[in-house]
Description:
single chain, alpha+beta, BirA Bifunctional Protein, domain 2, Rossmann fold, 2 domains, five-stranded mixed beta sheet, 15 helices, binds histidyl-adenosine monophosphate
Amino acid sequence: xxxxxxxxxxxxxxxxxxxxxxxxxxxxxxxxxxxxxxxxxxxxxxxxxxxxxxxxxxxxxxxxxxxxxxxxxxxxxxxxxxxxxxxxxxxxxxxxxxxxxxxxxxxxxxxxxxxxxxxxxxxxxxxxxxxxxxxxxxxxxxxxxxxxxxxxxxxxxxxxxxxxxxxxxxxxxxxxxxxxxxxxxxxxxxxxxxxxxxxxxxxxxxxxxxxxxxxxxxxxxxxxxxxxxxxxxxxxxxxxxxxxxxxxxxxxxxxxxxxxxxxxxxxxxxxxxxxxxxxxxxxxxxxxxxxxxxxxxxxxxxxxxxxxxxxxxxxxxxxxxxxxxxxxxxxxxxxxxxxxxxxxxxxxxxxxxxxxxxxxxxxxxxxxxxxxxxxxxxxxxxxxxxxxxxxxxxxxxxxxxxxxxxxxxxxxxxxxxxxx
Length: 420
Ligand code: HAM
């Protein structure tokens, strides 16, 4: 072990793990092309105020999990814990309201949260993040949910539950929060200490406390759905109608509130079979007030993020075989030191004609080099020894059936193209 190791909660994604990442990334990118979402990349760090104002000063993310630092110029910055606020900042900063709305954007990037590390929970993790900004129609909410659901379907993730709720807007939520506080006021001695704090600072979060002491109180709490204003109730009904039309199964969950403060109306989360908020694979919702919070004109938005590590963890848990690693076309076996330069040149020619090639080490035996070729999944071994060198030829061995033929050295790329 080196005496310096990767920081706690981070991980090296080794070459043998990369096929999983390729598999997920490729499916996400393909879907984004299908729905015409365009890629955006924002900086890994931002002004800390961006997250305090939007994610919320009372949330776990801002209070306990952000990596905050002062740079040498004295500016207070935070490593991005999520992507929605940065993408909205970019939307304002680059005048994207002048484009046809909604502006559809996605990114696949690392996020940073000082979380308690465990399976599927890291301090640096990666999100596939999707945002549609500038349109309040329920069909756009439904579109984002469809992308998320299609992603899981196409990856072959099974046993998922889509939880759906509406948490109202600035019009109806304050009234509900009063009703909720009234309900909790004489029960505060029965709930956990955290909930006593939530009662003061963030009452909506009372509803998704996981502490056993609070479950009885939560079960009797008034439901937000009964307090939605007409516009929010209609919007929620519309989202559900779109889900029904698409045949996407969902569970209406009146306790679903999410852990970030910027949400309005629709919220959703996808849970794998294994219980618990820790294991949520993806979540999102609408955030119609966010852009105003950071100085933009009133602009609605909706989106989601799904954790790539968690997707991969669940694919593995359900026993999915490792997606194929990229194949090697030709392994050039170099059978004598004299053939080194010709082998090197042969591999170069093969690559220039669009095939992958690796050259073996002349110091190793034919057998060892063929074993190496096998371990790289090579389709062919091109064997170059003194005899071949003298004749200007190469022995081409097809590794899946062992069949062999002799090919002129300069004819190999052409032979490979023919054999495609
Ligand atoms: P979030 O629920 O905080 O939402 O995170 C979304 C997903 O990121 C989670 O469902 C989970 O898969 C993954 N995730 C979160 N924390 C960790 C962690 N410590 N380790 C591994 N994976 C993690 C958001 O971030 C919102 N910005 C989503 C959104 C986009 N809402 C609207 N647009």
